[in-house]
């Protein structure tokens, strides 16, 4: 598999935010989101076998715990990723898979918690979510919308209601997009949409979703990678 980095940090997103987590960041993505902060994953990386990755996860977190497979788009390496996920589950790690849902998810083991990032219009990658993947979502999965404008918010609100997401999954997350070149201040001034504005829209509409902030960008300099 092609791997950009493996590191241990605190989980910054989802309902697992704040927990220690090993991140396995795979190389390559077939989308080009306007605000992507992971462009360094598009190329490069190094080849590793599933066994080498599992060994590195064990070294970083010998007593089990949370592991997130992310990217890039990890499902582009599905053929090798599926056995790796089974191996990590057998070793009793709690496994998160961060994906855009553009690739089919039906072969992902049920025990894996899918964090599906449905792209909003202003990402530049609208309509890439594979709608059939809704059927693969279970009560422990989460759906995330990264929102940069009112148009994005209205899309996320409509999608959430139309597909009854709050009944299907553990959590629906509305997250303000972050400026991709953010550096320095560890505060919401780098958000493309003011979290207060998003919060007020959500409250006004009584949307069955939770506001999500990228915790790691409030702890470390937003420009720092591998945290
Ligand atoms: S799917 Fe993720 S990694 Fe790919 S371009 Fe969008 S934000 Fe970046």
Walk me through this protein's architecture.
It is a single chain. This protein has 227 residues and is of the alpha/beta class. 25% of the residues lie in helices and 22% in strands. The protein is built from six helices and nine strands, in the order E-E-E-H-E-H-E-E-E-H-H-E-H-E-H. It has helices at residues 50-60, 78-90, 150-162, 165-168, 195-205, 216-219, and strands spanning 2-10, 20-26, 46-47, 65-70, 93-99, 113-117, 142-147, 171-176, 210-211. The chain has a nine-stranded mixed beta sheet with strand order 3-1-2-4-5-6-7-8-9, covered by helices on one side. Helix 2 (78-90) links the parallel strand 4 and strand 5. The longest helix has 13 residues, at 78-90. The protein is globular and about 50 Å long. The mean pLDDT is 95. The structure holds iron/sulfur cluster.
Strands, helices and their partners?
Layout: E1 2-10, E2 20-26, E3 46-47, H1 50-60, E4 65-70, H2 78-90, E5 93-99, E6 113-117, E7 142-147, H3 150-162, H4 165-168, E8 171-176, H5 195-205, E9 210-211, H6 216-219
Parallel strand pairs: 2-4, 4-5, 5-6, 6-7, 7-8, 8-9
Antiparallel strand pairs: 1-2, 1-3
The protein binds iron/sulfur cluster.
Residues 29, 31-33, 36, 38, 71-73, 100 line the site of iron/sulfur cluster.
Task: Report a brief summary of the structure.
This protein has 227 residues and is an alpha/beta fold. It is built from six helices and nine strands; from the N terminus they run E-E-E-H-E-H-E-E-E-H-H-E-H-E-H. The chain has a nine-stranded mixed beta sheet, covered by helices on one side.
């Amino acid at each position: 598999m092609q791997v950009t980095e493996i590191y241990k940090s605190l989980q910054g997103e989802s309902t697992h935010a704040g927990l220690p987590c090993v991140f396995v960041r795979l190389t390559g993505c077939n989308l080009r989101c306007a605000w992507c902060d992971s462009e360094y994953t598009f190329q490069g990386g190094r080849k590793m076998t599933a066994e080498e990755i599992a060994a590195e996860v064990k070294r970083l977190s010998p007593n089990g715990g949370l592991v997130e497979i992310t990217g890039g788009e990890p499902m582009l390496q599905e053929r090798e990723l599926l056995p790796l996920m089974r191996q990590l589950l057998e070793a009793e790690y709690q496994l998160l898979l961060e994906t855009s849902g553009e690739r089919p998810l039906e072969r992902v083991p049920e025990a894996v918690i899918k964090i599906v990032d449905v792209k909003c219009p202003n990402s530049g990658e609208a309509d890439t979510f594979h709608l059939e993947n809704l059927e693969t979502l279970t009560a422990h999965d989460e759906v995330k919308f990264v929102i940069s404008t009112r148009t994005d918010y209205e899309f996320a609100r409509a999608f959430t209601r139309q597909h009854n997401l709050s009944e299907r999954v553990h959590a629906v997350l509305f997250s303000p997009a972050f400026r991709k070149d953010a550096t320095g201040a560890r505060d919401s001034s780098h958000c493309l949409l003011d979290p207060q504005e998003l919060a007020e829209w959500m409250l006004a509409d009584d949307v069955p979703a939770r506001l999500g902030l990228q915790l790691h960008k409030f702890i470390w300099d937003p420009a720092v990678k591998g945290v």
